[in-house]
Design brief:
144 residues
């Protein structure tokens, strides 16, 4: 088995790294959750994910960490102005870079958000317009 989605915040979705290794898992994919609104990620969350990334790396498993609306709060709605999104993207990208720096010694890969749904799903809030997603990717990549 090459990769597996896990949830370190959910005991039922967070197998022991040794168990994953024994199953042949080479990479785990999980979201970095941090609902703190400040300019810095929550230090407790950073430590939580550092411990997880270290445990996976020590077991020979790489991490693919998802940076999304669960990583930085207060995203605008999909139909908000570009200006509202630009402000959010700036803060999101800064947080992404801070997380990448804090976890760099574990050599994780990062997934920024998710591709826009096409066509957009009515009522599905995480949907992004393509141009917003493109700006988010560029700025987050530069920060990471």
């Amino acid at each position: 088995m090459f990769g597996l989605n896990i949830d370190p915040n959910n005991p039922r979705g967070n197998p022991d790294p040794a168990e994953l290794r024994d199953l042949g898992v080479l990479q785990v994919r999980y979201t970095f959750y941090d609902s703190s609104p400040g300019d810095q990620p929550d230090p407790g969350k950073v430590n939580f994910y550092r411990e997880r990334a270290a445990a996976y790396k020590n077991a020979g498993i790489s991490s693919l960490i998802i940076l999304t609306y669960d990583t930085y709060p207060n995203r605008p709605s999909p139909d908000d102005s570009d200006g509202a999104w630009d402000q959010y993207i700036e803060r999101f990208a800064r947080r992404s870079g801070q997380i990448a720096q804090a976890l760099a010694e574990f050599s994780p890969a990062f997934q920024v958000w998710n591709e826009p749904d096409h066509p957009p799903h009515s009522g599905y809030v995480p949907t992004l317009r393509e141009n917003v997603f493109g700006r988010m990717l560029r700025q987050s990549q530069a920060a990471v």
